[in-house]
Structures
1.
Amino acid sequence: MQQMTQQPLNDAQLDRLGDFLEGVGAPAMNLEMLDGFFAALICGPET
């Protein structure tokens, strides 16, 4: 298992992720939707 980093993705990594998400096809999230999803997870209440 790889070690997780605490650094934001660089432009090349964001492009690669965006390309992957586009390649999955509908109804997959795009990069902006994925960002919003993670933001909602972070700020949502713990249950």
Note: The chain has a mean pLDDT of 88.
2.
Amino acid sequence: GSVLSAVPASPGIAIGPAHVQVLQAFDYSQKGESVAAERERLHTAIGEVRRDIENLIQRSKSKAIREIFITHQEMLEDPELTREVEQRLNDNESAAAAWATVIEAAAVQQAQLKDALLAERAADLRDVGRRVLAQICGVETVAAPDEPYILVMDEVGPSDVARLDPAQVAGILT
């Protein structure tokens, strides 16, 4: 096998097979089936993600992680985002195209804020956005190995960390 080196976030040595997760590519049409069908598709996906986030909040022992997910719930219910997505649905865009466009534009805008803490929320917005997009597109996350492993990802979002089983993850490499 190959050896990977990185800057440590905490001291220690981790040995195990690498479990590489790449950011999911979503394949979707720009044009919607019908406004009603696309609206239903979007609301169903948001509902699924909302339930998933609620479960993560209930399971999380960390107050900081719970607060991140409460913020994610608030992002799902943001009236400005909802209004912009609805506008695009009414212009016959697909639910996936409308959602992806609005979320990315909002994330870019958020990342440009002078306040560093607020700018960091762009990653949260993209995290929530990807989760809803995965639901709309029917893309499932890759199952983790049954043995302890080292997670290798380009970008690890808060929901990724919260889903990890500490007994199974020997290390994280980004």
Note: Residues 1-24+146-174 form one domain.
